[in-house]
Structures are given as structure tokens and as C-alpha cells.
């Protein structure tokens, strides 16, 4: 029998007692469409943040799919504000979505929310996915022929674009979330698209009662996804071990692999390793498509020398080694140095500005890529950073650098340097743990060249 008891503050605090869910970020965001799932999470999370000294902002996305969408977003925003929650309404710009509507809307929504989190320094984005969503996602992916990763469905914690996605309600059925709002007298909206048979998820949802009669209820399906998640975690563990054994991550944001060692692993581990490298170094929000990944792997296996690009990542095979770095055209643009504090550049580097030097609002100092011109200026200066000259040209181009106007001050290394500390930069480090997970490329491999 489905549990329909409301969640109270104690029950939610028990869920959030897991340190992995609570995290350490002071500034949190919660995605809220105004529906019962996300509204219940915003309601519970707002009270938890109040009691735990966290700052919460609710992100409401106006997809511009209907004429009344702006008014609907404002209504949701007003309900959240009445709970004492800060609200940011994010509006999707561009042409109207017409094909693959739900998927395109989801991609646009996540793009807007992740960009907001990065710009505003919110480290965690909370999502209202629940037990029924987990079961439906499992069925959707089963119908698409997904492998272990897809059938593992959603994870409680997921890194995407440098932001933690946190799903604290995956073990909670929707009936309990609706009951929570009804007990609190909190209004919510019902999305009319959830009633349309045009969408596969809705059609599968209608099958759930029939499946439950055969023993495949939401809890059973979600438990199956958990079993597969454990298998995925094992594969990820061996993938990290493989990366540690065959490669080296440099603090300047690129990777060098020993080709022979890399190709020794079983095919599944090789493909997972390559996918992780391409996703992290290329900066994409999603892994590369499997068919393209497989073609690139076959090229690495066949050619002792060669090159390729995939999802913003560039590769070069030379002298028994594979070099991987962000494709120069995918590197972020320059960011001016203003004020104090820290910021993330190019989704790879956290730059900490000195508290003793305050940058003016208008400054000609900025962080950007070294590029071709920067490398030429650095060579002409007579100064050198050990090992830079042996790097492939595309690797050097994406290295972070401090600029003043069109004049290079210096390349930035994670090794402290008077060149950039004199200009008010306190610290720079590669967010490797967020890029690859804490077990891939151990600290022993994080030395400079």
C-alpha cells in the first residue's frame, strides 16, 4: 500500500542528515515549477535552510511555451516569496520550441539554472525528483535499450557543469509530497502537459497500476535501479583506477595518457574512461553520444599517431602518448578582475582574489586563455615555465593566463608565483575533484611538469 503520510520537518531533517546530501555550500538553489513535487521540496528545504543557516533561492523557469507562461511564473514566484524564499525567474530566449518538446525544454531549463548557479556562486541545485519519477525513468530507459548507466536512473548526487545536482526525495513517493502540501495549506499547480498521451512518460505512467498488479510497483522498479546503480559505482571505481594508472592530470587543465597502458583495459572501462575525459575536459553538460565515442575509441586503437575532437575536447596521439585538452574554440572568454572573492573560469579553475587588493569596477586586468599571441609574448619575454615548450600547441592555447589589455602578464599555474600574486591573485586551482571525482587522478599525479 502506498504511503500517503505527510513529511514533517523532522522527517526531512533526517533525510538531510546524510552529509553527502547536505553538503557544505552556504548558497543553495532549488528548481521549482510550482508543481507538487518541486513546491513540496521548496517548502521543506526553506525551513531546513532557515534552521541550518543556509541561503536558498528558488529558480522558476519561464520556457515561453504558452502565452500565459510569464503570468504563471510570476504566480509561482509569489507563492515562494510568501514562504520567505528568494526567487529568480529565468526566461528562455530564442525561437519557440516545436520538436522533441519535453527534451528540448529540459535542456533549456537546466542550461538556464546551471548558468545562474555558476554566476551567483550557488554550489548546489536541489531537484524535486521522487520515487515515482525514478520508476518512470527506469521504464523509459528500458524501452530505449539503455545500458547499466541509463538503467541506474537518477543519482541522489550528480555533478553537472561544476554544480552539484541534489535529489533528496528519491525514496519518497509522490503521494507523501502532495499530502505535505495539503496539510500545510500550500497551493500548487498542475501541469496540463502531464495529462497528454502525446508524451511517452505519461503513457508509461498510466501503465503503472497494471504493472503494480504484477509485482512491479514504483518501489520495486526503483529498487532495481538501485541494484544497477551499485553495479555502475563498481564500474566507476575501476574506471578511476584505470585513469590513475594510465594517465596524469596536470594542474593547468589537461591530461596526458600512456597509450599502451590506456588500451590494456577491457573495452567497457576504456570507453568509460574516455567518456569521462571528454566530458570533463570538453566542458559539456552531458556525456558524448555513444556512437561518436566508440568511433573515437576505434581511432585511438588503430592509429599510433592521429588527432580528433569530440564534444569540445581535442585529442592528439603522438610518441606513444595521448594528449587531451579543451578545444581552443570551446575555451571560455575573458573575465575581468573585479572586487574580491572567488570565481570559476572555464568550468575548470577556481580563481581566488586577494582580500588585501580590491579591484576597481573598471579594470583592464582579466583572466583569459593564453592563446597563440600569449604564448608568443611569453617566449619573447625570455621567461619560461618548465615544460610548456614541449606541450602540443592546442594544449598551450587553453592554459589560463593573466592579461592587462592586449599585453600578457603571465600564464597562470597552480604553483604560487610572484608574477600573478603581485597582481592580487591569491590562489588558483583546478577543480579536479568536481571534474573527475575525487578518486580519479590522485594528488600524487597533480604535480607540475
From TrEMBL:
<dbReference type="GO" id="GO:0005737">
    <property type="term" value="C:cytoplasm"/>
</dbReference>
<dbReference type="InterPro" id="IPR012094">
    <property type="entry name" value="tRNA_Ile_lys_synt"/>
</dbReference>
<comment type="similarity">
    <text>Belongs to the tRNA(Ile)-lysidine synthase family.</text>
</comment>
<dbReference type="InterPro" id="IPR011063">
    <property type="entry name" value="TilS/TtcA_N"/>
</dbReference>
<dbReference type="GO" id="GO:0032267">
    <property type="term" value="F:tRNA(Ile)-lysidine synthase activity"/>
</dbReference>
<keyword id="KW-0436">Ligase</keyword>
<feature type="binding site">
    <location>
        <begin position="33"/>
        <end position="38"/>
    </location>
    <ligand>
        <name>ATP</name>
    </ligand>
</feature>
<protein>
    <recommendedName>
        <fullName>tRNA(Ile)-lysidine synthase</fullName>
        <ecNumber>6.3.4.19</ecNumber>
    </recommendedName>
</protein>
<keyword id="KW-0819">tRNA processing</keyword>
<dbReference type="GO" id="GO:0005524">
    <property type="term" value="F:ATP binding"/>
</dbReference>
<dbReference type="InterPro" id="IPR014729">
    <property type="entry name" value="Rossmann-like_a/b/a_fold"/>
</dbReference>
<comment type="function">
    <text>Ligates lysine onto the cytidine present at position 34 of the AUA codon-specific tRNA(Ile) that contains the anticodon CAU, in an ATP-dependent manner. Cytidine is converted to lysidine, thus changing the amino acid specificity of the tRNA from methionine to isoleucine.</text>
</comment>
<keyword id="KW-0067">ATP-binding</keyword>
<keyword id="KW-0547">Nucleotide-binding</keyword>
<keyword id="KW-0963">Cytoplasm</keyword>
<dbReference type="InterPro" id="IPR012795">
    <property type="entry name" value="tRNA_Ile_lys_synt_N"/>
</dbReference>
<dbReference type="GO" id="GO:0006400">
    <property type="term" value="P:tRNA modification"/>
</dbReference>
<dbReference type="Pfam" id="PF01171">
    <property type="entry name" value="ATP_bind_3"/>
</dbReference>
<feature type="domain" description="tRNA(Ile)-lysidine/2-thiocytidine synthase N-terminal">
    <location>
        <begin position="28"/>
        <end position="206"/>
    </location>
</feature>
Amino acid at each position: 500500500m502506498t504511503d500517503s503520510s505527510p513529511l514533517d520537518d523532522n522527517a526531512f531533517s533526517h533525510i538531510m542528515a546524510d552529509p553527502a546530501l547536505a553538503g557544505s555550500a552556504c548558497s543553495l538553489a532549488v528548481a521549482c515549477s510550482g508543481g507538487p513535487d518541486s513546491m513540496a521540496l521548496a517548502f521543506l528545504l526553506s525551513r531546513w535552510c532557515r534552521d541550518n543557516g543556509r541561503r536558498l533561492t528558488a529558480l522558476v523557469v519561464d520556457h515561453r511555451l504558452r502565452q500565459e507562461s510569464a503570468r504563471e511564473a510570476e504566480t509561482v514566484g509569489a507563492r515562494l516569496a510568501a514562504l520567505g524564499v528568494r526567487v529568480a525567474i529565468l526566461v528562455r530566449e530564442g525561437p519557440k520550441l516545436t520538436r522533441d518538446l519535453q527534451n528540448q525544454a529540459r535542456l533549456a531549463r537546466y542550461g538556464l539554472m546551471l548558468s545562474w548557479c555558476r554566476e551567483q556562486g550557488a554550489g548546489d541545485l536541489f531537484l524535486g525528483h521522487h520515487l515515482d519519477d525514478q520508476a518512470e525513468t527506469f521504464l523509459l530507459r528500458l524501452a530505449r535499450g539503455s545500458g547499466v548507466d541509463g538503467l541506474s536512473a537518477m543519482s541522489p548526487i550528480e555533478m553537472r557543469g561544476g554544480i552539484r545536482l541534489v535529489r533528496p526525495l528519491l525514496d519518497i513517493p509522490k503521494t507523501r509530497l502532495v499530502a505535505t502540501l495539503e496539510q500545510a495549506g500550500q497551493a500548487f499547480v498542475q501541469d496540463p502537459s502531464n495529462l497528454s498521451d502525446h508524451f511517452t512518460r505519461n503513457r508509461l505512467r498510466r501503465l503503472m497500476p497494471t504493472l503494480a498488479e504484477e509485482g512491479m510497483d514504483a518501489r520495486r522498479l526503483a529498487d532495481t535501479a538501485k541494484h544497477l546503480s551499485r553495479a555502475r559505482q563498481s564500474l566507476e571505481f575501476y574506471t578511476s583506477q584505470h585513469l590513475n594508472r594510465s594517465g596524469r592530470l596536470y594542474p593547468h587543465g589537461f591530461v596526458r595518457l600512456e597509450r599502451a597502458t590506456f588500451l590494456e583495459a577491457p573495452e567497457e572501462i576504456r570507453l568509460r574512461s574516455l567518456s569521462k575525459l571528454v566530458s570533463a575536459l570538453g566542458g559539456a553538460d552531458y556525456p558524448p553520444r555513444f556512437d561518436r565515442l566508440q568511433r573515437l575509441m576505434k581511432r585511438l586503437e588503430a592509429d599510433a599517431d592521429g588527432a580528433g575532437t569530440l564534444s569540445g575536447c581535442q585529442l592528439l596521439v603522438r610518441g606513444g602518448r595521448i594528449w587531451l585538452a579543451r578545444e581552443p574554440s570551446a575555451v571560455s572568454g575573458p573575465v575581468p578582475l573585479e572586487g574580491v572573492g572567488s570565481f570559476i573560469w572555464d568550468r575548470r579553475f577556481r580563481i581566488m582574489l586577494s582580500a588585501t587588493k580590491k579591484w576597481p569596477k573598471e579594470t583592464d586586468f582579466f583572466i583569459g586563455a593564453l592563446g597563440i599571441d600569449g604564448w608568443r609574448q611569453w617566449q619573447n619575454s625570455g621567461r619560461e615555465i618548465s615544460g610548456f615548450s614541449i606541450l602540443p600547441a592546442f594544449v598551450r592555447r587553453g592554459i589560463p593566463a593573466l592579461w592587462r589589455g592586449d599585453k600578457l602578464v603571465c600564464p597562470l599555474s597552480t604553483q604560487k608565483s610572484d608574477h600573478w600574486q603581485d597582481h592580487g591573485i591569491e590562489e588558483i586551482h583546478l577543480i579536479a575533484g568536481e571534474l573527475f571525482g575525487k578518486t580519479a587522478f590522485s594528488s600524487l599525479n597533480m604535480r607540475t611538469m
